[in-house]
Amino acid sequence: MEGFPILTLITFLPILGMVLILFMPSVQKQWIKITALVVTILQVVLAAVLLANFNYEAVGVNQAETFQFVEQFRWIEIYGGSWLGTIKIDYFLGVDGLSIPMVLLTAIISLIALISSWKIDNAVKGYFALYLLLDTGMMGVFVALDFFLFYVFWELMLLPMYFLIGIWGGPRKEYAAIKFFIYTLLGSVFMLLVMIGLYFSASEKLGDGTLAHTFNLLALMDQSNYAPDGILSPLNPHNLRFIAYIALFVGFAIKIPMFPFHTWLPDAHVEAPTPISVILAGVLLKMGTYGILRISFPIFPEITRDLAWYIGLFGMINIIYGALVALAQKDFKKLIAYSSVSHMGYVLLGMASLTTVGMTGAILQMFNHGTITAMLFLLVGVIYDRAHTRDINGFGGLATQMPAYTGYITVAFFAAIGLPGLSGFISEALVFVGAFGVPEIRTITIISALGILLGACYMLWTLQRIFFGKLNEKWSSLQDLDLREYIMLVPLAIIVLLLGIYPSALIDVMTSSVNYLVEIMLPTTTTISSIGF
Amino acid sequence: MDLTSLNNSLRLITPEIILSIFLVIVVVVDLILKSNKKVIPYLAVLGFAVTGIVVISSLDSSGFAFITASTSSKQFGMFAHDPLGGFFKLLILSVSIFIVLFTITSSEIKQIHLRSGEFYALMYGMVLGMMVLVSAVDLILIYVALELLSLSSYVLAGFTKLRDRNSEAALKYMIYGVVSSGLMLFGISIVYGLTGTTNLYLINSLLQGPQINILTLLFAVLLIMAGVGFKISAVPFHFWTPDVYEGAPITITAYLSVASKAAGFALLIRVIQIGFVSFVGSDGFWNLIPVFDWKALLVLLSVLTMTLGNLSALWQNNLKRMLAYSSIAHAGYLILALATLSTQGVVAVLIYFIFYALMNLGAFYIVMIIADRTGSEDIDDYDGLGYTSSFLGVSLIILLVSLVGLPPTAGFIGKLYLFIAVLDAEMYVVAVIAVLNTVVSLYYYLRVLKHMYLTKASDSTQSVRASGGEKIILLLLVVPTLLFGIYFQPIVDFTKSCITVLGV
Fold first, then answer.
1. Which ipTM score applies to this complex?
2. Which of A108, A503, B210, B256 lies 20 to 30 Å from B389, alpha-carbon distance?
3. Nearest CA in chain B to A200
């Protein structure tokens, strides 16, 4: 694999597809769709190649030499005078155990959501062009190791997402689209300020021995690179690292979305077309938690330790609040949206534990939530396509009418609740085991466990209302799943089952990196050795 | 003044002389050609291009023209030929070329076809005023150049006389302009009374002396700022901007929003850096003579300007008016960069200006193309336009995204350098205000895109197609906007080579 720019390829292949699509006549709808399909299939193949060649022992996180498939080129290098110094921006891509699950997830979800997009019939060219642009942005965020590059990819997603919700969405699409855009931008402008602050505080030695300010994330993680008078330098007694941490965290928290920044999510989900909901829940929300793991934790370890309790607390609020609100929903899609809020809370709780078990659970939960919720949104889309309503109370007795559909939705629901044997169980269990082991957040963990109960309540109650009881005669003509829907659902169901039975398939990928991350977060304690199943 | 010194001075103002010659040529050709005046705009472009080449060829040389003052060791003139002036001259000339290209296809200008010679002659007047202004280091010359610029632009604002709003714009512009330049002249005379000179360099050395009355100087500087603030439409001197921008022909609106603003900023940079800086530290920060707190004034102006500009833009339905308020907001960001009072702040201003010129001209041009076809600048008439004219739609997306300042567009790089300068100066609170302003601005820029793409076209929406020529001109603005967003090294390097100010 030496020298083959596989990460560039996996990131920019969609852009290439987009350019191809832009040159196609807009009446050739079939060819446009096929082009996009080919691109996303290739992306999955590349992701599989990445996984096959991935070295499970290499740790990454803040060690440049142990990152894999690294591509690093000087992108911008501007020599300043005595003032401002030299500016250096790298085109720096690489993956480690933290990012490879997300790369896999992005590739899989992009393909599945694309299949789900097959029914889009209006402005096809624009839709698929924007879809592929979004794809590049998402993939880029997970492979970028330079803060500047990360930021560019992070912002690159906003505009396509705005149009995808705004043009192809539901009745209140304009409101939902602008709300999404403004919320996310609000978070990311603060991220920009922190990024510049870090850039000023740290510098990296260039090849010729001169010092240059840098956006290189790995250099920013190394405390010896900070100047004593840097504003975000740990050596400076009057530093603003605490404020910067909060600002950065808010930027990521909006994306998760963490209470109280979650209000854009239900609107965006309800109004977005099904495939975009799938992308949103499957990949976009993970960027927030990934950003915290990749940037906030290793760059600000001491503040993370101080604030871990609060992160856990917000995780708990997310879990309980999301579940309670979900319980009150009448709209099927909104229910799933709030269940997302609840389930992302587990990720926060697992990260707050700062233990190998908890963090492994968190990353696994990111992946599992991606696949499970993608499945749920697809299933909501299936019923909405047929019935043109999502009112939970309006259904009833669908189990006899649509047995296969009921089967899949039961699998997805049980996986979300955390039934043993399905993937959700493993990640939630790991999160709780990890968090419970930390005395400081034990109370929070115990309260959070109520979330599982509440989750079971709203999921089972929904199942009962929609699928059991007497069949509402209005729906006696509903068809069961068709071939296209099977193609979307079967792979996800297999993943959910597989990771439920054999979670090590994914856990082993991240163990070395997570162990190492925990080690650098808690320099004084002994490392908990890797876990096995 | 002896002959060699005169000769020397004339050599330094070659670009201005060439420009004047072309002004005369335009007027004469206009007299000769009776009805077919199609050649005049091309002649105008030629003149700007030739002047531009001369400016480029002498970009790295510097010197004073018209030596009027001297201290024991140095001589100072009225006119500084230096890289900073060269930068602004190039910017102004490039913008002028684009504006003339805009006028070739503009239907407003076609309707006054017979008077087009005067139109371009007046434009030359404006350019000449701006070129002198960006190099002037003597308060009298500054005032004269400013008046040349202003008088030409008053006439141009009302030149077409096609609508009532036209004349209203011109009149409003003139009344505000005359008042503010009167105030400025008053300020200049007080400064002269205090120091006995009008040369900025001498003023600087006199201000360092002990016997300056601070209160009187404060009054004088505020009066001078009224004149400068008017040109860069800083709050509270901005009242003319929306009305004039809405009423004037679009080409002139675009011109005022970029070129004359650039000249205003050049003037502000010079007044502060030459008149009030005692020395420049090795870290790039300016140490001011403690007679006037420029930082407080500029920060205040900047916060007011960007906030008011953005908040007012939210409610506008006329796109020209919206872009007018948006340009006020951008002036606020630019003042903020200057408020850092540092070399990196000036670099940020210059970089921002290049990108601002690209995206703002582009946005105005699209509004012009659409207004030419539909006769409306109202945002409701943009419903569904993105589908009927995808080229204009996509171009406008890129330009507006750039105006918001999102990557990967040039606007982001402008904002990046702006915030680098501001954070370097440790001005954290204003930095937060500025980023919040960016978020506010997203709403009204997106509103345009919402109408173009998210709203279904009503029956009255006409299809708009850009002609081949218009597409090429637009591409010349849109492609760099994207390109510089991805690779901005050459722009930054060029800008850094241009920040030398003579004698500081």
1. 0.91
2. B256
3. B424
